[in-house]
Design a protein that fits this description.
By secondary structure, this protein is an alpha/beta fold. It has a domain of about 100 residues. It is about 45% helix and about 10% strand. The protein is built from 14 helices and seven strands. Strands 5-4-3-6-7 form a five-stranded mixed sheet, with helices on both faces. Strands 1-2 form a two-stranded antiparallel ribbon. Helix 2 crosses helix 14, helix 4 packs across helix 13 and helix 7 packs antiparallel against helix 8. It is elongated, with a radius of gyration of 36 Å. It starts with a helix and ends in a 10-residue tail after the last helix.
Length: about 500
């Protein structure tokens, strides 16, 4: 019995030690599994942050102004070297300064000095030679027109007095030329009001306050309200239109500038909201039934128009994925496909074709399906943990692939319909000047000022697209005769 007791104690001790080791092993395994999940999560987070830091104008929708000054990305362009020398090419339609046939001044250069014989050259009889040289100069001056009335007595004894013209309603006022020039500076060239007043004072010796220029802008907006409303309705009737929006700082708050435009028409509207409520309040998209080109923002999909997504956005997203994960080939293949399809449509339009050949369309669509099928294998959908019902955040690559597959008809309509452009650059160009205005002046001090600016810019942008003289149309606006743009 005494010999069995140590053996029993040893067995119990070993079993206890084994139980302890098993428990410790289970704890370590759980800890390793927890740390593995944490490492995977942190690795994904680091990857996400690195991708965010690497974003700039060429691989995202960020504007060029957001690029850091110490890291300017190399220009990313699809243009290839032509091999030609820089500058104008032989046979190009150039422009040459021609002599004016009716110059405002003609100066005859007299003879000066003395002849070798000692006579004064000024005494020589001369004739004007055919050679001419002209100097074009800018002459800016103030011209004040004073109106005086008269009175007289008829032979019958009845007094008569002349009346001032209806357009001359105050002792001192500004004419349509000056008013048009002021609005041209503030709403087309985007000068701040204070700098515009300084320029006018320097050129014309006319001193007034920035509030005077603000009043001129309000007067122009009131007179242009009817033409701008007609522009909006004309955009609604168009076959293809572009839509976009951008933030605008108004009276210390964020508002939104919405644009609906074509290649020859532009309509802007300012609203406190960005989404469907704003688009419904503006009231144009509800009646639009053509092809709407936009950046796949969900609010636009609420309307019954045919939709076409901006592929420039897709190219930037694909570039970001290709740079983040260079081992993947599908982003580069899809970039090549989209660029080839765009080049094919450009060539077809230049040749006057109504559409691409059917075999080309089928080939582009088949290649697109194959590339996206391969891409889906590399980026499967993330699932929540077992028993969890929370929504799992998907990767940018998965979201892009899902969008391109789900909305293929909205991504590739430019292939089947040559009226549809490849991108939404038209709307982005039309918004660029408004961002420039905000960059120069900082913000709009009132909602009324922002709305007036939208009205005036709608009119000026439209007439600029239609090759009108912007200054002259503003002069006519202050004369009460704003030209109506072409709406067809």
């Amino acid at each position: 019995m005494s010999e069995d007791l140590p053996v029993s104690n040893a067995r119990e001790s070993l079993e206890a030690e084994l139980a302890r080791l098993r428990a410790e092993n289970a704890v370590l395994r759980a800890r390793v599994e927890e740390q593995s999940e944490q490492i995977a999560h942190l690795s994904e987070r680091v990857k996400e942050l690195e991708a965010r830091v690497a974003k700039d104008r060429h691989n995202s929708s960020k504007p060029p102004s957001s690029d850091p000054p110490f890291k300017k990305p190399p220009p990313k362009s699809r243009r290839q070297r032509s091999g030609k020398k820089a500058g104008g090419q032989a046979g190009h339609p150039g422009t040459t300064r021609a002599l004016i046939e009716d110059p405002e001044k003609t100066l005859i250069v007299p003879l000066e000095g003395t002849c070798r014989c000692g006579r004064d050259c000024g005494e020589i009889t001369t004739e004007v030679l055919p050679e001419r040289r002209q100097v074009s100069e800018m002459v800016v001056r103030r011209e004040v027109t004073e109106y005086r009335t008269v009175e007289g007595l008829c032979a019958c004894g009845e007094p008569h007095r002349s009346a001032f013209p209806d357009s001359v309603s105050a002792p001192i006022q500004y004419g349509p030329g000056l008013s048009g020039f002021a609005v041209y500076l503030t709403h087309y060239q985007h000068l701040p009001y204070q700098r515009a007043t300084e320029l006018i004072a320097s050129l014309l010796n006319i001193t007034h306050s920035p509030a005077t220029l603000l009043a001129m802008g309000r007067k122009a907006a009131a007179r242009l309200a009817e033409p701008v409303a007609a522009i909006g309705q004309a955009v609604v009737r168009s076959a293809v239109a572009h839509a976009d929006e951008t933030g605008l700082h108004v009276a210390g708050a964020l508002q939104w500038l919405h644009v609906l435009c074509t290649t020859v028409l532009t309509f802007y509207a300012v609203h406190a909201k960005r989404g469907v409520d704003a688009l419904l309040d503006i009231g144009l998209l509800s009646a639009f039934h053509g092809i709407l080109v936009h950046d796949h923002w969900r609010s636009y999909l609420s309307f019954s128009a045919l939709h076409a997504f901006c592929n420039a956005h897709h190219l930037r997203e694909l570039i970001a994925i290709a740079e983040t994960e260079p081992i993947l080939s599908w982003p580069k293949r899809l970039i090549t496909l989209l660029c080839e399809a765009n080049d094919a449509t450009i060539a077809a339009r230049a040749a006057g074709l109504e559409g691409l050949p059917s075999h080309s369309v089928e080939d582009f669509f088949a290649r697109d399906d194959a590339i996206l099928a391969d891409a889906a294998c590399f980026h499967p959908q993330r699932r929540p943990p077992p028993g969890s019902r929370r929504r799992v955040k998907q990767t940018p690559a998965y979201n892009l692939i899902a969008r391109l597959r789900t909305h293929r008809n909205e991504v590739l309509p430019f292939i089947t319909d040559l009226r549809v452009p490849f991108d939404n650059h038209q709307a982005e160009r039309d918004l660029r000047m408004q961002k420039l205005k905000q960059k120069i002046s900082g913000c709009f001090r009132s909602t009324r000022g922002a709305e007036d600016f939208a009205v005036i810019r709608s009119y000026l942008s439209t007439l600029h697209k239609q090759s009108f003289d912007i200054y002259q149309v503003l002069v006519l606006t202050f004369k009460g005769q704003p030209p109506m743009p072409r709406l067809a």
